[in-house]
Design brief:
Largest sheet: 5 strands, parallel
Radius of gyration: 24 Å
CATH superfamily of the domain at 224-480: P-loop containing nucleotide triphosphate hydrolases
Strand content: under 5%
CATH architecture of the domain at 224-480: 3-Layer(aba) Sandwich
Amino acid sequence: MSDEDWRRLVQEASQLRTAGRVTEAIAAYQRALAANPDLPESWFNLGWLQRRARAFDDALGSYQRALDLGVGRPEEVHLNRAAIYSEYLRRPRDAQRELQEALEKHPGFVPALVNLGNLHEDLGERDAARDAYSRALELDPTNTLSLARMATASLSPDLDTEMEARLRSVIARPDATATQRAGVGFALAALLDAAAKYDDAFAAAAAANEASRAGAGSRGRYDRARQEALVDQLIATFNEAPSGASSDPAPVFICGMFRSGSTLVEQILAGHSRVIAGGELDHIPTIVANIPNYPAGFALADADALNRMREFYWAGLQGQVTSTVFTDKRPDNLLHLGLIKAMFPAAKIVHTVREPLDNLLSLYFLHLDPSMAYALDLADAAHWYGQYRRLMAHWDRLFGDDILNVRYETLVAQPDAEIRKVLAFLNLEWEDGLLDFSDTDRAVRTASVWQVREKLYTRSSGRWRNYAKYLEPLKEALAVAGFAADER
């Protein structure tokens, strides 16, 4: 093939990549590289596309070819490889190695330092996380993400007044964006809450939620009617339990409201010799995103389509499931239990439940993705909660024997009894040491990353009382939704 031919193929591949036509772009790059394999930038672009296509091993190989051929800005390649290892393959030490290689090639590469800090947090390495964020701030004092992460990795009953001043100075800066004010504001709220400065903490959280809404634009507005319609459609589409028994392998799905204890349950189960903890996987949401007009469009799925969904799910685990029980802990999978049971009729569901005032207050203090816009307003959160409970009541009617409700308050107060109940539900025997999970070296990717590494405690139960005078509107909204708060 002539130079003109392979150059034309590279141009075609680039145009397809820009247009978002991933599969076609991959094929075009592969044809170009078959003709001329000495194109490091094309190998990089192919790796990027393969990552989007979830061909993670292929992406790692393409990125490595780019490195071997001397690609420009190799630190970017190592950063992308680290993301694959940490986010998809659950190989945090390999991710750490990639980030360190990125920093060896470019010691001032701030994105690698920020990601290294996040990775150390996932691994429970608090001092190393703070060190990475501190180094990032030395290189870029305007990096508000590093400042916010360093603050939340340093929470203490003794207020760090210097950190408080740094956070407040960023919020007050005229040039700070709404997104920056939100990120730093939530960190300030957490800092003040940990130090029992409750009035100041609530004010900081309220301002952070307002800034988050402003920064998200239309994505920051919760549509109550749309959520009600979604729940109606889910109930109408998935209105029958799967018929017949199934002996096919199935994951255990741990779900519930965010901040309801799902990570804690999985962290405890992860200590069992017959359990592999999958963590917060994106497999089910990805399948949902590829079903046209979901949920109503699922009615067109036949047996072959379900087989393809199952194959996609298991393929995404990269052969890591070798135990009796594999857990998929993603709170919002609660929306898709109908789909999950259609794919895996034998699937068991562990549903975590928490007192709504505590649960929704916890969400209000957390910097969440704009897709969870309901959490930005307590009344909207109460509405979402009511719709979630309406949907769970439907799932209970269909799949009740395969759903176990685990109440957070009972779990932290009587962990032995509650975990024995979970083990019985999953046909697992008790093993000593299950409750000694706080010193695990397993990576935990969750907003609860520090809490789940502590010994079991009950101080978060009844936390809402610290903010009682601000929560009357929430109580009223919960009552309107049909769920009176438990004020014991």
